[in-house]
Each structure stands twice: as structure tokens, then as C-alpha cells.
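Quick check before the chapter quiz. The format below is the same one you will see on the exam, so make sure you can read both the input and the output lines.
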Amino acid sequence: VCEGKTDGRPLRLLVAVLEALTAFKCAFVARSVPLFFYPYTFPDSHDWIANGMAYAGHAVASSLRPPGLPLLIAALETIGLIYLLPALNQLVLALLVLVCFTFLARHFDPWSALICALLLFLNYFLQDLSYYIMADLYAALLFLLSLVRFIDAAEDPRRYLSSAVFFGLSALFSYAALAVLMPAYLLIVLLHRRDHLRARPLWIAAAVGTLISSSWFLYRWAIHGDPFQSEIAHVELLGLHLSGLPHYLLNLVSVPGVPLFALFALGLVLTLAVPRLFPSLREAQRALLVVLGISALFWVFLYRWNDRRFLIYWILPLSFFATRMIHL
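Here is the expected output.
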């Protein structure tokens, strides 16, 4: 146990910063204007909004994007609070940073975790992304929660169930969980947790995660006769390519910023060079290295839409290895 592990001051300080800045940003973005006139939109944002309006009963076409964000938009539209969606984005970002901090504080000293959490929260990329109407922020929070619970399940297999629920919900916002977490979890269990294959909670969790994540495919199969029916060419974008290599090499430095990237790179090199330096971190290191490797393989080499926003799914490995260097 790290010295000072029970020190609650870093958590209180982080919560105070998150509350103050999130409240300020919520007051700035929560305006009673139609969402289509909200200024922070990517080209895809209007399509996400249109999908939500279709679920709310408006006469607009749906491109059949993953249903998580559209259903949230439809619910807010139905109760007349759609203008609060940008403010909800800010709360999700704060929760994402808080989840990162609590995970890091359990593996390192809380002051090191606080430094990394503040670097994340004050990062321009994350702050900018939080203003836009996109599903990735919500999917990344659920992705992160699933991964944290999966790592914790090494000690208690009953935690697989909550990991599976978060996994399934993340897949309903974005297919990133299916592309990264599903193969990562399979690999980790087969390589490092084979004794868990005899544990009933693992199989219950697998069934729950499969049921939730496959519900969207089953719905499209039942309604449209094709489980992959969509106007968005996700499947067509899969294929081996090398164009992502310079794109992600550049953005892996620019997105977190040079200081955080340097800490991450040094922490990763230290982990690979001296994997037994901190035996208590072994399980977390194994899992995060697998997730990091599969993330790099998929986003860089197998998905032919290069976009820096996908680096939001790399946050936990990035912050973990960066905090390892801060802790030293």
C-alpha cells in the first residue's frame, strides 16, 4: 500500500475543481435553443441529432447509428429538456476524469493520481471534444468503467457482471467496445486468468454482455432483415492499411500534450523494460498493455477512418503509465 493512500485531500481538491469548472461550462452551454442551432457540431453531429429526433417521433430519416446517444436525445426531446444535452456532456467529462482518478489513486499515491487527473481534465482535446454532440464521450465513460471493473475482477470474479453491463452499454453508444474490449477481454482471460473459466460469474457476465451488446443487431435483423443495416459504412471501413501510422503517431503526441505524452512514453518503456518493478501493479499492467496493443492494432492498422477523437478510448492506459512516472 502506497504511503498516504488514505489521504482524502487530493480527492476533495479534484472534486472542487471539477465542480467549479463544470458548473461554469454548464452555465455557458445550457441554452434554450433548438439543438440544430447549437454551434459546436461536427458534420456527424447533425446525423446523431436526426437519429434522436426520429426516435422522438419527428418526420426525419434515421441512418441507424448505434442507439445510445439517439435514445438519450429522444428522451430529452420528449420531456422538453433537449437544450441540456451540452451540459450533460460536461458532467460526463467530469465523471470520466473522476473514474480515472479513483482507479489511479488505488494503484499509486493519490497526489500523483491528482496531477494526472488535472492534466487530463485541463487538456484542450478533451475540453474541446466535450462541447460537441457526439457519442464518443458517453461511450468512452462506459468503456472506462467496464475496463476498470474487469481489472478489479482479477481479485473478485463477481465484478465481471458490472464490467459486462458497462461493456454492453458502451457498445450501444459506439462499436469501439466490440472492436477493442471484446478481443482484449478474451485474450486476458485465456492468457492470464484461465482459472476463472471455471467460475460461474464469468459466464453469467459473458451472457449479459453479449445480450446487451447484441440487442442492437437483433433489432435491426428483426425490423430490417439485416443485422448490419445502416447508412454508415462501418464494415466497409475495415481493412489493413498504413495511413493511420503517421496520423496517430503525430496525434498521440499532440492530443495529450507533450508533458503528458512524455510521461506516458517513459512509463510505458519502464514497464516493458522492468515489468516486475512493482509486483502489486502486475494485473493492471497486463490488462492495460493488452488493451493498448489491441487499440493500436485496430485504430491504426485496421480501421480506415483516421480520427484523433478515437484516442479518447486510450485514456486509461495513457494515464496509468503516465502516473507511474509521476509516482516515481
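If your answer matched, good. Residues 1-5 have pLDDT under 50 and may be disordered.
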